[in-house]
Amino acid sequence: MKTLFRGTETLQGWAPKAGSDARRNYDYQLTIYAVLLTIFGLAMAYSNSVGSTQQALTTSSPFVRTLMWGVVAAVVFGLTTSFDYKWVRSFAWPLYLINLVLLIATLRLGQGTGEAGSAARWVVIAGFQFQFSELAKIAMIVVFATFLSSRDNVTIKSPWTIIGALLVMVPPWVLVMMQPDLGTSLVLVAILAGMLFMSGASLFWMGMLISAVIAAVPFVWAGMRDYQKARILTLLDPGSDPKGAGYQLHQAETAIRAGGFGGKGLTNGNVAMPVQSTDFVWGVLAEELGFIGALVVMILFALLVWRLLTCAWRSTDTFAMLVGTGIATMIAFQVLVNIGMVVGFMPVTGIPLPFISYGGASLVSLAAGIGTLQSTNLRRERPEW
User: How many domains is the chain partitioned into structurally?
Assistant: First the structure.
């Protein structure tokens, strides 16, 4: 209980720190890069709407729904930026319990796409789909940051810190794997690894943990579904099943080659890909916007991660530093894996491309995470580089 309400005596309420310091501390570049990536996501949603229904402005189209979720994300971003982040830290553990309840609800009520290998990830409420595993990523960043920031310089080096963090991760990780959602489970592991590293956890014990994970690979393989095994085997031999497990990869590579240097133009892509609005949206982007468009998006992602890490490094609050690190790790990992699986360097794991893949929960959770980080910027004691 002491840890749960730690720091509540210094809460500043809703208003950010007054004066010009707060305005200087606000990271405008971070917001600009996120907005530009969201615009690219809207463009892809529009293209997919025209390609699937020829009516991009109907209420059920991906474009209109993305616009609606964009408005929700903007509101969430504004609220989390205005809200004092110390409250978020104080209520991290209740948030953890709510996260578990939502993941359990997904198992009981979740729906998939109906295709082979699809996970029951979405809960439909009032006609809207909610993917609580996306919200779990941000929730766990807050929880990990709270747990690790409560350790001093001595205990952070202890193996018990790593064990404790793993015990915190296990319940949501298991619930996500039960959907099954291998992609999100990998993201949670990557987030924890990045935050442990930045917190100053022992590299020796982290190395031991990595060794244990590698040793567990045969057991993980034995517990994987057949379609998951087929995706990995197809990665090792792409031509082994071009009309089956390798169909997605074959179509994505065809789309990328067809896009060439300048692309075919928005809505002019004609290479059909499964789940092209979500997991394989990078193939659509590369076909329609070409190498130039894909390069611009990759540069924006690199700049966004750089600004996230900059906000983390200049923070005088360990919790704020870890939140920035967690968000940067989450986005960088998802970008690398998503693009990697589209171009054939990674197995297909169902990890969405942040801001670009169609999905309201992902956009809202990103807005909440970046807004929380901006809240820490506004309440820094003094502006730094």
Answer: 1
Is the pTM higher than 0.90? The answer reads no
CB 150 within 8 A of CB 143: no
CA distance 246 to 237: 9
Look at residue 18 and tell me if it is in a domain. no
325 close to 312: Cβ distance less than 8 angstroms: yes
Is 370:34 a contact under the CB 8 Å cutoff? yes
Which residues make beta-bridge pairs with 111?
122
The two structure tokens encoding residue 285: 């982007």
Q: Are the C-beta atoms of 175 and 188 separated by less than 8 Å?
A: no
Q: Is residue 352 part of a domain?
A: yes
| Angstrom distances, CA of residue 296 to CA of 266, 289, 299 | 15, 10, 5
Extract the tokens encoding 267. 């809505």
Peptide linkage before 180 cis (omega within 30 of 0): yes
Q: Is the peptide bond before 16 cis (omega within 30 degrees of 0)?
A: no
Specify if 43 maps to a domain.
yes
Query: Does residue 16 fall inside a structural domain?
Result: no
pLDDT digits (tens, 9 = 90+) for 133-173: 888 999 999 999 999 998 877 678 888 999 999 999 999 99
Nearest in space to 31 (alpha carbons), one of 308, 264, 278: 308
pLDDT digits 0-9 by tens, 296-331: 999 999 999 999 999 998 888 899 999 999 999 999
Range of the structural domain that residue 217 is part of? 24-378
Segments in the chain forming alpha helices (H): 20-25, 28-53, 62-82, 85-90, 92-109, 132-149, 159-177, 182-199, 203-215, 217-223, 226-236, 247-259, 281-313, 318-343, 360-378
